[in-house]
Write a structure and sequence with these properties.
Strand content: 15-25%
Structural class: alpha+beta
Shape: rod-shaped
Number of helices: 6
Distance between the termini: 206 Å
Helix content: 40-55%
Largest sheet: 4 strands, antiparallel
Strand order of the largest sheet: 3-6-5-4
Amino acid sequence: YAPDGNEPAMFSLVPVFSNGVYIGALAAQISSTEINEIMHESTGLGKTGESYLVGSDYLMRSESRFIRETILNRKVNTESAIQGQQDKSGFNIIDDYRGIRVLSYYGDARFRESFDTEFEWIVITEIDEQEAFEKVSRMGEIMLWLSVIIATLVVIVAYFISRYFSAPIQKLTKIASSMGRGNLNQIFEVEQQDEIGQLAESFRILQVSLQKKANEAREIAEGNLTVEIQLLSDEDVMGNSFKAMVDRLRTQLNEISEGIGVLASSSSEIMASVTQLAASASETSTSVGETTITV
């Protein structure tokens, strides 16, 4: 007789014996509705995912999620169905029974193992490749944007860090260049407590030293040889040179002073001789006058 509602159904039969004699069979009809409800559970399968059963004749044993009346009507000759019939399980990227590229997982339903049936069905779960990789593509886009944002932040941070270090160095370079042109009145505004701050402090010490040497040179130029040249260290080349120059000038000045003293003494002697000669000339002139008168 026709199945209830003239719809495909599954039957389970059990033989009935009486005193060892077969008298009939007990048949139970299992509606495909319950099977479809189980197979249409699509949690985690998105909009295009589905699971379905395939018999050994490659006909579907559950309704498709997308096509009606596929039970015993729709044949599935895909790679997943063929390998599943060979008691294999695995994963493929194939064209499904609709001709759509899908990610397909296949494996046997273990009916023979669990219920001692004479047949075995294949369970196939598939999802469209586009939807499956859409999340991966979206994740890739997100990672790309994150990389761009991170790279931008790195550039900004690197810029400010470089400004933090380069700006003081540029100031010191400008000051050093000005000092090289003879301007020793530069003002240092670097207050960092790191290596750059130490470099700026070294420049300040150099500036003070050069200003001191310039003042000493000015005193010497103005003729003040009493100035005391203070050496910064035994390695103070400029200080040692100034000290040697002052000592030499002092020595020369003393020699000149002694020479002037000698010249002054000689001048006195010459003046005395001139005076004596003048007196002798006067006496001679007087004698000549007297002689003329007598004659």
